[in-house]
């Protein structure tokens, strides 16, 4: 689809810029993020559709010295829009929320999200009180803007228009939330 990025290409570009940030991801985003390689500062929010942004907020508040990057899906974000108001209310300077908009609940079989062609996620974020909200449709723009996005004082909300991937219902998500990964994250944050 023209004007939409490939999620894997986005993850590859992000991987080049991530150093010591905590990365919170869920479902399809998490599978494509972990495919970029293991790192101790990954937090996978499996089984908690809609809560990656809330988990990211909690980590950002608990660890203000460390940048927290949330990789969330549009369907997941729709399940917990109230998180935008909570993020705005707490205003953590170290939080970046990327919403991957493919207009589908990809993790649950690829069903379309409500109002897929009219919802404006950056406008929702701004109206919730997150003024630093924008949208990106092209990989070149994402690569150019990424250093500034990661350095900016947050909270920052960026909606990424991506192509829909294959439906992944039952697609191996349980592999993300293992005891070994949780222990590695605890050690990295200690």
Structural topology:
Elements: H1 7-17, E1 22-25, H2 27-34, E2 42-44, H3 52-62, E3 68-73, H4 74-78, H5 82-90, E4 95-101, E5 104-105, E6 111-112, H6 121-128, E7 133-136, H7 139-151, E8 156-161, H8 179-189
Parallel strand pairs: 1-2, 1-3, 3-4, 4-8, 7-8
Antiparallel strand pairs: 5-6
Helix pairs in contact: 1-7, 3-5
Overall domain count: 1
Instruction: Let me know the largest β-sheet.
Output: 6 strands, parallel
Q: Helical residue percent?
A: 40-55%
Beta-strand proportion = 15-25%
Tell me what the CATH architecture is: 3-Layer(aba) Sandwich
**CATH hierarchy, class:** Alpha Beta
What is the averaged pLDDT score?
Answer: 86
Determine the CATH topology: Rossmann fold
Low-confidence stretches: none
Strand order of the largest sheet: 2-1-3-4-8-7
